[in-house]
Design a protein that fits this description.
Layout lengths: L2 H10 L8 E5 L4 E5 L3 H13 L5 H15 L43 H9 L5 H10 L38 H13 L6 H15 L2 H4 L1 H4 L6 H15 L8 H14 L3 H13 L13 H6 L3 E4 L7 H4 L8 E5 L1 H15 L7
Antiparallel strand pairs: 1-2, 1-4, 3-4
Length: 352
């Protein structure tokens, strides 16, 4: 069923091995092409998840896309040759690639992060030595190792959870979706668990139990900032590994996914909620896929808050506002979400 969608995705991959994406801020009429590893890695990861359920021809296509993507990963490896990865190319730095202003300011040059690193590890074949190195590296940047988080809720500040960033001078940052991806990597490779893993899982449980992930999604996941995306990442982690620490939140995730699916206006958002329900063993409402390309083109999966990194409480009050945020879109990744829904739901798409 998703063969045509996969062919569409493959046609979008460039000679560099990357899938094109854009960053934009409609409030200031800003839009630029963006060169990053994130959308390429998460697209490949999403396709890997459905590989066993598609035709042999589509399996070969997924393998080809993965091979081409992996060849581009070294461009984003740590600038000093360490085995962590950056959102943007590192040598030389191309932060805010293809831009005119932000790329000239060192402030906007971000450190390597757990999200890109986890997705690169999940779409390659890291050695045991590389995996053990990463597991030893993560606690060095976790909360309370050298710094204390200032940007989360007061009652979570004692959690020794992993920070989004590897940078020594970057503030500690908790993001539920990035943590879900990192924990997926840790479980996938059966790496030894410690207090940082336990507290990261506790953070994920607490934001759901408290309802904060509904009321304050930006504070819970500042780089995704939508409840639907938090549900999607949590459901993927739970469905794959069923961590005992997260079993208590399944009913809340299911109830909220049903409610949000009924009110979401973008159909890509509807189908990621349906995918989440299906992953958790729940019947999901069907999504009308006719002319879905209009919703694909309007959907954004990731944001960057220009004030998010600041720990100043005054600036933090404005960090959630769209005026100081960039939205990232990637057509290939949005189509991979459609393909994922087609496989899990058994739906059909007659035209792409």
């Amino acid at each position: 069923m998703p063969d045509a969608v996969l062919q569409r995705i493959a046609s979008l991959q460039t000679d560099s091995g990357l899938f094109p994406s854009t960053r934009s801020n409609p409030a200031i009429f800003y839009r630029r092409a963006d060169t990053n590893v994130f959308f390429t890695a998460i697209t490949v990861f999403t396709l890997q998840q459905i590989r066993a359920s598609v035709s042999s021809a589509s399996q070969s296509l997924i393998d080809q896309m993965r091979t081409r993507a992996v060849a581009a990963y070294p461009l984003f490896r740590n600038k000093d040759g360490l085995n962590t990865y950056n959102f943007w190319p590192t040598r030389p730095s191309q932060h805010f690639s293809n831009g005119y202003v932000f790329r000239h300011f060192e402030h906007f040059r971000i450190p390597d992060d757990i999200d890109d690193t986890a997705m690169v590890y999940l779409t390659t074949s890291p050695t045991s030595a590389e995996l053990n190195w990463l597991k030893d590296k993560l606690p060095q940047h976790a909360n309370l190792t050298n710094r204390r988080i200032q940007t989360t809720f007061d009652d979570y500040r004692q959690l020794r959870a992993y920070s989004t960033w590897f940078g020594k001078n970057m503030g500690i940052d908790f993001d539920a979706c990035a943590l879900s991806n990192l924990l997926y990597c840790i479980y996938q490779y059966d790496l030894p668990r410690n207090q940082h893993d336990t507290d990261s899982l506790a953070y994920l449980r607490l934001i759901v139990e408290s309802g904060r992930y509904r009321d304050r999604p930006f504070r819970c996941a500042p780089h995704y900032a939508r409840t639907s995306l938090i549900i999607y990442h949590l459901a993927r982690l739970i469905a794959a590994f069923d961590p005992p620490e997260l079993r208590s939140i399944r009913p809340r995730l299911l109830a909220d996914a049903h409610q949000l699916a009924a009110t979401a206006t973008n159909r890509v958002e509807q189908l990621i909620l349906a995918t989440s329900l299906l992953r958790l063993g729940e019947a999901a409402p069907s999504v009308n896929l006719v002319a879905i390309e209009h919703d694909v083109n309007a959907f954004h999966f990731f944001i960057a808050g220009l004030l998010t990194a600041y720990e100043n409480p005054v600036l933090q009050r404005f960090a959630h506002r769209p005026l100081v945020q960039m939205r990232w879109q990637c057509e290939a990744h949005s189509w991979s979400l459609v393909a994922e829904y087609l496989v899990l739901s058994g739906s059909q798409l007659t035209e792409v």
